[in-house]
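User: Design a sequence. Structure:
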């Protein structure tokens, strides 16, 4: 009798030669990342450019945010959906989160800090800014590796120059005995790439193409979940998968997480090199703000792959 090993999210080491452009290890790792993004839509990156000390520091400085008065938290407002403060309530009563736009820019992190602490909070500002800046470097590294693997790296500079970031800082409290353990509803991301990082409390689950839920088991302070969103799926002409994922709370401690979302300020379109007889064009050019507006018009669109309804050509059906 052949024993089957339970499926797990792929883990990819981005240490040393694996992240050094031009080496054999780099070329091999680029291909491995592309395969993971096509098969699972995500992978676990082991990445040491974000130190263990920074990991512990950032989770230490973000926790007091959630103890601030409600009227102070509400100062984190935005005209864009899901870009400002999210107050716990239906349908996600366990989730409490903030949105920090352009977090890798020091000025933006200072502005956010002063909203919550008018007298200043230098430790918070410096720590969160350093974390966001280094995490954006991980996002750019992965994006470069995918572009190179597809042979379309000539478009990389233009893409990175148009990229902006949103850092969401979240707390999931422990559910009461009579509450459901669902922390975040199942959904696909509407941005290009997401870098997810958490404290030692697990809860993230990712759905495979065949409907199986895989649990992300936190392995170390230097492990990060890299996940593709719907715009990446469209850019790749439906090669890259955008997975449904959710949070299920476990244990008796609060879960804290950081999610860096990359978006494009320019029109997103499939490179002509990704289109051929075997892979006919499946999506019209689109912009992130248009997609965001489209899916927020109807809350039921949050849990489905909206991009095909928004800008897909008929041949995708």
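Assistant: Done.
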């Amino acid at each position: 009798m052949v024993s089957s090993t339970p499926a797990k999210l792929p883990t990819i080491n981005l240490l040393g030669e694996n992240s050094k452009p031009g080496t054999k290890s780099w070329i091999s790792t680029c291909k491995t990342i592309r395969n993971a993004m096509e098969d699972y839509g995500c992978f676990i990156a082991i990445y040491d450019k974000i130190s263990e000390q920074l990991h512990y520091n950032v989770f230490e400085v973000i926790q007091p945010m959630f103890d601030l008065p409600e009227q102070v938290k509400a100062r984190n407002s935005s005209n864009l959906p899901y870009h400002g403060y999210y107050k716990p309530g239906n349908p996600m009563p366990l989730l409490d989160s903030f949105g920090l736009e352009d977090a890798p820019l020091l000025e933006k992190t200072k502005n956010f800090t002063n909203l919550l602490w008018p007298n200043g909070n230098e430790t918070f500002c410096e720590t969160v800014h350093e974390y966001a800046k280094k995490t954006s470097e991980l996002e750019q590294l992965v994006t470069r590796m995918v572009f190179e693997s597809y042979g379309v790296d000539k478009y990389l500079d233009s893409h990175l120059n148009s990229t902006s970031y949103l850092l969401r800082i979240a707390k999931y409290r422990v559910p009461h005995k009579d509450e459901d353990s669902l922390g975040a509803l199942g959904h696909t991301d509407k941005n290009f790439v997401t870098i997810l990082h958490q404290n030692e409390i697990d809860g993230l689950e990712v759905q495979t193409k065949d409907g199986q839920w895989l649990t992300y088991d936190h392995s170390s302070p230097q492990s990060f979940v890299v996940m593709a969103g719907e715009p990446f799926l469209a850019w790749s002409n439906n090669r890259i998968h955008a997975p449904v994922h959710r949070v299920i709370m476990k244990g008796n401690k609060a879960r804290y997480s950081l999610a860096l979302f990359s978006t494009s300020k320019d029109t997103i379109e499939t490179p002509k090199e990704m289109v051929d007889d075997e892979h006919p064009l499946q999506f019209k050019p689109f912009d992130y703000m248009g997609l965001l507006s489209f899916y927020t018009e109807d809350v039921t669109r949050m849990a489905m792959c909206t991009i095909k309804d928004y800008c897909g050509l008929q041949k995708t059906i």
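The chain has one domain: 11-316. The mean pLDDT is 93.
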